[in-house]
Amino acid sequence: MGAVTEPDRSPKQDRSRATRQRLLEAAVACLADRGWTGSTVAVVAEHAGVSRGAAQHHFPTREDLFTASVEYVAEQRSAALRGLFPAEAAAPDRRAVVTALVDLYTGTLFRAALHLWVAASHEPQLGFRVVELEGRVGRETHRMAVELLGADESAPGVRETIQGFLDMARGLGLANLLTDDGARRERVVAQWTSVLDDVLGRNRRGP
Amino acid sequence: MGAVTEPDRSPKQDRSRATRQRLLEAAVACLADRGWTGSTVAVVAEHAGVSRGAAQHHFPTREDLFTASVEYVAEQRSAALRGLFPAEAAAPDRRAVVTALVDLYTGTLFRAALHLWVAASHEPQLGFRVVELEGRVGRETHRMAVELLGADESAPGVRETIQGFLDMARGLGLANLLTDDGARRERVVAQWTSVLDDVLGRNRRGP
Lengths: 207, 207
What we know:
The structure is a homodimer. By secondary structure, chain A is mostly helical. Chain A has a single domain, classed as Orthogonal Bundle (Tetracycline Repressor, domain 2), CATH 1.10.357.10. Helix content of chain A is about 75%, strand content about 0%. Chain A is built from ten helices and no strands. In chain A, helix 5 packs antiparallel against helix 7. The radius of gyration of chain A is 19 Å and the shape is globular. The interface between A and B is large, with 47 and 47 residues. Chains A, B: This is TetR family transcriptional regulator. Chains A, B: It holds the Pfam family TetR_N. Chains A, B: It comes from Streptomyces lasiicapitis. Chains A, B: Keywords: DNA-binding.
């Protein structure tokens, strides 16, 4: 199928794309584990099994590599989440959707993004790019939440309800940073799913 | 009045207490501005106008100084917030309470705490102490929220509603880290105040 949709792609281009992907995945893992201070292009190149020169060919600066990596992994996770609840299927269980959205903010991607955000708050060369990235990822997550929750944003208060819910998910992610907060989080998610049901009404999506 | 309640305190003890307070306040400001990497005892001592020896007399290690500073400023802010809504007064306006609680998570204290939390996630010597600190501050904030919101935690779901609301406040703080998110935050707070009114019922506190 690849040969049909992208007839001109050579094995060399495939290798280059695979290298790029390995670097992006290694960069997120590195950021999550070591924080911004411990995350350099050299460390990531080594983890990805790529030469430093090749890494710098793909990402000329440290800022390029780490902002691109968070965006790439966020896109992967969005696509995976949409895949769990395909639009053509019947309206999904709202509790499952709420849990899946909250799960976006626990785990490696959130830890990596958090390190990048916090570093950006006192590193001006990073700040501007992270603000743009945060805007893009935030808008995509909001769109996806509206869609999967079956919410009607033309009704008053619905937009702010979803925004507040995503802020809560982000706060739950922060609470999970140093200790496993899973049991408490599950109780909060159960309660807030029923609150969302009251505010948003029953799920309107589906055939 | 100090002379009546603490008759044995000498001018020397007063000076020592004032030095300690200056160090704690300077440490939070430093952490918020420069992050954990840029925050050393020497930098804080200079900002506080205190000798490095005096700083080390009060706080033998860097970890001592910064964890104590976040706890101290959190206690100051809690006391100030309780002062705004004294228990003997009539039931306060819930929107004002929600706004004041959310405000705990914007500004210098939250930025400082966030830097400490994030550093603790990959610095083991800091991790254990920050987990303890987070637990103490979190419990105190929850107690205060229950009290000021006039919530009855014996009713099902109320505890988790308040927890989720405080997670949302934390998430709103994070969203305010790199850009001024005040206008969006105000709309979210307005909507979620009305959601809290529905879940918690009208304010039960007061005469």
